[in-house]
Structures are given as structure tokens and as C-alpha cells.
Amino acid sequence: MTIQNNPGVPLGGLHTIGQIDATNPLCFEDTRNGMTVALDLLSTHTAGGPVVDNQGTYLGFINEADVMRALDQRKDLSKLEAKDIMRKVRLTVTANTLITKAAKMMEEHHVLSLPVEKDGKVLFSVKRHDLLRARIGLGVGMGIDP
């Protein structure tokens, strides 16, 4: 097996969430319109994002499946807010969380993205793609990102 060894990257890749250049900036305020949430997910090709209050405090998470579930229940997305669609499970990581632990959380909870918190505020999310890239020692801009 060949392990990528890039300048400034430890042999064997990165180890904590704080070392990652995350690629999921989506974050929805709890009052954001449901149709706008769906359009944001579609236009960014992102599977989901955290829902926060106006202080940036984590409240829940919305992914494509949650939006589809609302549609299956014949709900009008334009009359819903993010807080009406989100799942309320508290599933977050911090900069100190090991990448291996985050990957296990994603697998166990069947999610593709995890919000990253610092001082009680959501900063961004990391995707499974980010974790894989970090584990093999590749960063954003090293020739593999579009």
C-alpha cells in the first residue's frame, strides 16, 4: 500500500478534525425557508448541513433524506422552516475529535456529514469525503478537488 506523503502532512495522513480543510460550508438558520434549504442542498451538491439558531448554536441537522421525508408526507416546503424539517439528534464533533472517531460516528449513525463546534457554535461541517482525503494525507488544492 502506498501512503501519500505531502509536504507539511504527517506520514499516514492527518489525525484530528482540526487539521482538515473542510469542504461543507452549508449551515442553515432555524427559520430558513424549507424550499430554500432544498434548493441550497441541490445547488451545492451537498447532502446536508447543520441547523443553528441566530447565535450559531447547534439545534439539529437537515439532509436530503429529511427533505424527501417531508415531501413524502405531502408537506409544502415553502410553508416550512428548517426547524420543522431537521432531525434533532445531537451529533457533533470538535477540532480535537480524532478523524477515526468521526468516521465511526458517521458509519454508526448513517450520516455523511458532521457539524464541527467550537465554544458552543457551529463553524462548518466535515464530510466523509473530507475524512478520507485527510486520512491519506491530501489537502484541498492538491490536485484532486474540482
Notable characteristics:
alpha/beta; 146 residues; 3-stranded mixed sheet; CBS-domain; single chain
Textual characterization of the structure:
This protein is of the alpha/beta class and 146 residues long. It has one domain: CBS-domain. It is 29% helix and 19% strand. The chain has five helices and six strands, in the order E-H-E-E-H-H-E-H-E-E-H. The protein has helices at 34-44, 64-72, 82-85, 99-109, 128-135; strands at 28-29, 48-52, 58-63, 93-94, 113-118, 121-127. The strands form two sheets. The protein has a three-stranded mixed β-sheet. Strands 4-5-6 form a three-stranded mixed β-sheet. Helix 4 links the parallel strand 4 and strand 5 (113-118). The two termini are 26 Å apart. Mean pLDDT is 85; it is low at 1-8 and 142-146.
